[in-house]
């Protein structure tokens, strides 16, 4: 039975990948960091009682900033494959916590690669690094592919640039099977609530049910190439099954703006929305790009989306569009879930969650909320 070790197993991709690998018959080990509250929501359905002898899903406490825990776990598990998915993954937060982001996202990758080397597992353990389209940042070529020059635009992207190159370096220096998946944005109903797609689907569902008044966003014109996380974890696995390690861009090759995403989610919810300047009818919702201009033309409609400059980034990545030709050709990989299906699934799940909150509220209890 093959053994896989996943860092970041409690995150979006970690959860989908663990499920995928269990389905393939792997024994799956996950590293989770210590938190003061339970943070295993995304993997609770995979949990197996530690007393079960034949269990194939095992969690370990560890942290990317702590070499001792990484060496200990890798020594104990001796995995065939390591998927390094753990990271401080929020671009905006990386401007607020640049040093921690570098420690976990850049040095974290180095610590794992060194652990593999220290333990003499270079020829046994394959390594996957979760690289990112953020490396392209201020884009030098459209669409972006494996050979496009990098120009990172945030402490997060700069940290990930180090992780990208240290992975390439260990492959070349020590003959390790180590590779980078340069993944464009991928989303799902279990996407973190503060990334823009999930923030939109969650907020619009709550606005529809009267649980929230307004959604505040930053740059509405930013463009991204959005895929579904379930599709993308399959590629992470495929990358480690080849004869030779190589780096791959993973994307859909289709681009939408944040504004397009709002429109698609609102359409899915049957909400009649108009952007400023298009007029508002009595039943309509007004999606208004400036909070300063208040509730909309002639007091009609209602402002449900407004721009709050607090969500602007000191240096923004305005546009990303991937070219996944190499992955299609060499891995035989192709995304199965379309943009509209992705939005529909996210909206459906967030509407269910909002309905639960509505019920809780109706019975006089306080629904869970989060604060950014
Ligand atoms: P998430 O933010 O959902 O998950 C990140 C995971 O890393 C969580 O399990 C988190 O734990 C864990 N983590 C954070 N810091 C540490 C640390 N110091 N030690 C151990 N674990 C830590 O990210 P995604 O699942 O969306 O992304 C997975 C990876 O892919 C990340 O590296 C991300 O940067 C990268 N990536 C993501 C893309 C996307 O669009 N989703 C695109 C390209 C790359 P906890 O649950 O406790 O917070
Ligand atoms: P990104 O994702 O920065 O691309 O990083 P995010 O969803 O945070 O932002 C996408 C774009 O939307 C704009 N935006 C907002 N973003 C957030 N979070 N909140 C807002 O209110 C808002 N309004 C507009 C942003 O400015 C940006 O242009 C994600 C992460 O998963 C990274 O870990 C990963 O590497 C990349 O995707 C590929």
**How many strands?**
15
Give the names of the bound compounds: NADPH dihydro-nicotinamide-adenine-dinucleotide phosphate, guanosine-5'-diphosphate-rhamnose
SSE run = EHEEHEHHEHEEHEEEHEEHEEEHH
Largest sheet: 7 strands, parallel
* Structural class estimated from helices and strands: alpha/beta
Write down the Rg. 22 Å
Question: Count of helical segments?
Answer: 10
Low-confidence stretches: 293-299
Mean pLDDT across the residues is: 94
Helix share bin: 25-40%
* Quaternary structure of the protein: single chain
**Strand order of the main beta sheet, please?**
3-2-1-4-5-6-11
- How much strand content do the residues show? 15-25%
What distance separates the N and C termini? 42 Å
Using the alpha-carbon principal axes, give the shape.
Answer: globular
GO molecular function, one term: GDP-mannose 4,6-dehydratase activity
Cofactor: NADP(+)
EC number: 4.2.1.47
Keywords: Lyase, NADP
Structural notes for this entry:
The chain has helices spanning 12-23, 67-77, 91-96, 98-118, 155-174, 196-208, 229-239, 258-268, 325-330, 339-362; strands at residues 3-7, 27-32, 57-61, 81-84, 126-132, 178-183, 186-187, 215-217, 223-224, 227-228, 248-250, 256-257, 273-275, 285-287, 303-307. The protein has 372 residues and is of the alpha/beta class. The strands form 4 sheets. A 7-stranded parallel beta sheet has the order 3-2-1-4-5-6-11, with helices on both faces. Strands 8-15-14-13 form a 4-stranded parallel beta sheet, covered by helices on one side. The protein is globular. The two termini are 42 Å apart. The structure holds NADPH dihydro-nicotinamide-adenine-dinucleotide phosphate (NDP) and guanosine-5'-diphosphate-rhamnose. Residues 7-8, 10-14, 33, 35, 39, 63-65, 85-89, 104, 130, 132, 183, 185-186, 192 line the site of NADPH dihydro-nicotinamide-adenine-dinucleotide phosphate.
């Amino acid at each position: 039975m093959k053994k896989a070790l996943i860092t970041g197993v409690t995150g979006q991709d970690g959860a989908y990948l663990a499920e995928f690998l269990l389905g393939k018959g792997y024994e799956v080990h996950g590293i989770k960091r210590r938190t003061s509250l339970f943070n295993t929501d995304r993997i609770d359905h995979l949990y197996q009682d530690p007393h079960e002898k034949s269990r194939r899903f095992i969690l370990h406490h560890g942290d990317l900033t702590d070499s001792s825990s990484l060496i200990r776990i890798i020594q104990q598990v001796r995995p065939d494959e390591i998927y390094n998915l753990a990271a401080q993954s929020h671009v905006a937060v990386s401007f607020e916590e640049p040093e921690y982001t570098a420690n976990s996202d850049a040095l974290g990758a180095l610590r794992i690669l060194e652990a593999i080397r220290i333990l003499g597992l270079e020829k046994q353990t394959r390594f996957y690094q979760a690289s990112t389209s953020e490396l392209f940042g201020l884009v030098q070529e459209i669409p972006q592919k494996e050979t496009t020059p990098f120009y990172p635009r945030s402490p997060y992207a700069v940290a990930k640039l180090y992780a990208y190159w240290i992975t390439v370096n260990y492959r070349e220096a020590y003959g390790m099977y180590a590779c980078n998946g340069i993944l464009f944005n991928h989303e799902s109903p279990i996407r973190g609530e503060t990334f823009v797609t999930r923030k939109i689907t969650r907020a619009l569902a709550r606005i529809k049910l009267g649980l929230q008044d307004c959604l505040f966003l930053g740059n509405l014109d930013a463009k991204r190439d959005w895929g579904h996380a379930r599709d993308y974890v399959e590629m992470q696995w495929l990358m480690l099954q080849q004869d030779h390690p190589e780096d791959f861009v993973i994307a859909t090759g289709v681009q939408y703006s944040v504004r397009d995403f709002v429109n698609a989610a609102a359409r899915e919810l049957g909400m009649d929305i108009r952007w400023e300047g298009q007029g508002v009818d009595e039943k309509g919702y007004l999606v208004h790009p400036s909070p300063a201009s208040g509730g909309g033309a002639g007091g009609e409609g209602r402002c449900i989306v407004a721009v709050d400059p607090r969500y602007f980034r000191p240096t923004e990545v305005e546009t990303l569009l991937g070219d996944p030709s190499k992955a299609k050709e060499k891995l035989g990989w192709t995304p199965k879930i379309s943009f509209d299906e992705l939005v529909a699934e996210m909206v459906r799940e967030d509407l269910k969650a909002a309905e639960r909150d509505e019920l809780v509220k109706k019975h006089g209890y306080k629904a869970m909320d989060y604060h950014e």
